[in-house]
Design goal:
There is one protein chain. It is built from two helices and 13 strands; from the N terminus they run E-E-E-H-E-E-E-E-E-E-H-E-E-E-E. The chain has helices at 18-25, 82-91, and strands spanning 2-4, 8-9, 12-13, 30-33, 39-43, 48-53, 59-65, 71-72, 75-76, 98-102, 105-110, 115-120, 123-130. A hairpin with a 2-residue loop joins strand 12 and strand 13 (123-130). The chain is globular, with a radius of gyration of 15 Å.
């Protein structure tokens, strides 16, 4: 599954609606609302969770994934040593990360691409990517019907 920075993952593009996603991937294994009334889709086989923002007309705005098939710039990321992955990403111009630590986890956040590499025991265990917010403080939706 190819990660497309600022756009989404694989065929999932920020700004899609629930029906657009279902047309591509079928019905989710789980579908629920979170505490903010956002709609969440879970696809077990793809190991991915999708968030459709209630305040944004239920557009796809956030993805959390842990599939071993995830690739960023051709590099597999899940189960990679964070030090090695950061070196690879630096070659692609992604060098700025904010580190947030809690319990045994570390989150490496890159604001420019709105990505988080979640690390435990020195290895990437989860990847998160969100829709970009533009200079007007609005979401930069990429999906065009």
């Amino acid at each position: 599954m190819k990660i497309n920075p600022k756009n989404g993952i694989d065929k999932l593009i920020f700004g899609m609606k629930q029906n657009d996603v279902i047309a591509v991937y079928g019905k989710p294994d789980k579908n629920y609302k979170d505490e903010d009334n956002n709609v969440i889709f879970v696809y077990n086989e793809l190991k991915i969770r999708l968030t459709f923002y209630e305040e944004e007309d239920l557009k796809l705005g956030y993805l959390v994934a842990s599939s071993p098939e995830l690739e960023l710039f051709g590099y597999k990321i899940i189960s990679r040593k964070i030090a090695d992955l950061k070196k690879d990403l630096a070659e692609k111009g992604i060098t700025k990360f904010t580190l947030d630590e809690f319990d045994t986890f570390e989150n490496y956040f890159n604001e420019e691409n709105w990505i988080i590499l979640q690390v435990e025991f020195g290895e990437v265990v989860k990847f998160e990517i969100g829709a970009i917010i533009n200079d007007k403080d609005e979401f930069d939706w990429k999906f065009k019907k």
